[in-house]
Design brief:
It holds the Pfam family DUF155. By secondary structure, the protein is an alpha+beta fold. It has helices at residues 7-11, 118-127, 143-149, 208-216, 257-297, 304-324, 332-336, 338-350, 353-408, and strands at residues 42-49, 61-68, 103-104, 129-141, 154-155, 164-169, 188-193, 197-201, 219-235, 243-246, 249-252. Strand 7 (188-193) and strand 8 form a beta hairpin. The longest helix has 56 residues, at 353-408.
């Protein structure tokens, strides 16, 4: 890296324009610089005597201070120490002055060091990252009883949506308002939905079970396995735009409770939609096996009771997706503020909620078509049975009538 001496040095016409320190070649009077063994800042001061055969002022002295961010600057064959100076030379210096002092007092920032600043940027990104985890282990949660036992953690709603609650843990006196940051704090949030989804913000991995157990006491319709999904929110107050999307994360200028509600609602719908999608996939697989059996044998052995159970399951799944999840209901927060509408639309597109519901609806139509087909077959079977029963009864009645007629006529059988 090259650093040029500023305009003040040009006025005194020094023969040296650039100072470059490297372990390959050093100035005659400057001892070699040794790289630090730690990643801490270091500072050193040296005196450089510039000799020249030109008629310029003899041997001016440059007093400078160099700073390096970490030892990365000395690795990978890039053993250069960048320095920058702010000159303190006066243009009125006497021509016969033997020494001129130049103060090198402007530090080099991390971003100017190239590779040397990557470690710091990674640490900053990690500090500003908010982990988001979504869970689903039941199909229903009693929100009223949950709020009753966690009144001090309950955050009052700001919209008319009543199918979820937001609970805050940690520093309860600090409310995330406009421009405040959640990342790096001990505050964590839990969004619980009536249809069973739970979304945790800024909760450490080893603390997840503790928060899930708070909801498990008020849950019903427990599932055999817990479903999980992960996402990430990054806060960057210096972001030029309100939000910016990335791979498995969204970057915001700041995250407040409205943003938590908006992000939590989409993640809660996503993981619940995944559960209902798998339920429908199971029904599709079951009908596929029936159709393959019919292809081989020409008949099927399903009774009407099991078929009716599948009909009820398919209808309830579709009703839950439309009514409980509110998949097509736009949040009041998104209606009121275009910023949150942007988050809502971006996340719905990111998690492909519309496409996944279209796929779910297509599978349900396939199930419905098979149900209707099998119902017709069962109905035909029942009709055939009733027809044969009627034929048998009529035949029996005819036989009885003939026998009675014969008895009355006095006809005797041999």
């Amino acid at each position: 890296m090259w650093r040029t001496i500023d305009a003040h040095l040009r006025t005194v016409r020094l023969p040296v324009r650039t100072v470059l320190l490297s372990h390959h070649q050093y100035p005659p009077s400057l001892p070699p610089l040794k790289p630090p063994n730690s990643l801490h800042f270091f500072s050193l001061s040296e005196t450089l005597t510039i000799s020249s055969s030109t008629p310029y002022p003899p041997s001016p002295i440059l007093a400078f201070t160099t700073r390096c961010i970490n030892s990365v600057a000395f690795g990978r064959g890039r053993n250069l120490v960048p320095v920058r100076c702010i000159s303190s030379i006066s243009s009125s210096a006497a021509p016969n002055q033997q020494h001129t002092a130049v103060g090198w007092n402007e530090p080099v920032t991390c971003s100017e060091l190239g590779d040397g600043g990557k470690g710091t940027n990674i640490e900053e990104d990690a500090r500003q990252s908010i982990p988001v985890r979504a869970f689903l282990f039941s199909t229903s949660v009693d929100l009223k009883s949950l709020v009753e036992q966690n009144k001090k953690n309950f955050i009052p709603p700001t919209s008319r949506m009543t199918n979820y609650v937001v609970l805050k843990f940690g520093n309860l006196s600090q409310a995330p308002g406009l421009g405040s940051c959640i990342s790096g704090s001990n505050c964590c949030y839990m969004v619980v939905f009536q249809y069973g989804s739970i979304v945790l913000f800024n909760v450490r991995e080893h603390e997840v079970d503790e928060y899930l157990n708070l909801v498990r006491k008020h849950a019903s319709g427990l599932l055999p396995e817990t479903r999980k999904d992960e996402y990430e929110v990054r806060e960057k107050p210096t972001l030029n735009t309100w939000m910016q999307g990335g791979l498995d994360y969204i970057m915001l200028q700041f995250l407040n409770t409205d943003g938590i509600r908006m992000i939590g609602s989409v993640l809660g719908q996503s993981i619940a939609l995944d559960y209902y999608g798998r339920q429908v996939d199971g029904m599709v697989a079951e009908f596929t096996d029936i159709n393959r059996g019919m292809e081989k044998t020409g008949t099927f052995s399903m009774d009407s009771k099991k078929l009716f159970q599948i009909v009820g399951k398919a209808n309830s799944n579709l009703a839950d997706v439309i009514l409980k999840l509110g998949l097509f209901e736009r949040s009041d927060i998104a209606w009121k503020d275009a910023k949150y509408a942007q988050i809502w639309e971006y996340l719905r597109d990111e998690f492909e909620l519309t496409q996944r519901f279209a796929s779910l609806d297509f599978k349900l139509k396939f199930v419905e078509h098979n149900i209707r087909f099998l119902q017709e077959i069962l109905q035909n079977r029942k009709s055939d049975f009733l027809e044969w029963l009627i034929i048998v009864l009529i035949s029996v009645e005819i036989i009885i009538s003939v026998f009675d007629l014969v008895q009355r006529s006095g006809f005797k059988f041999l």
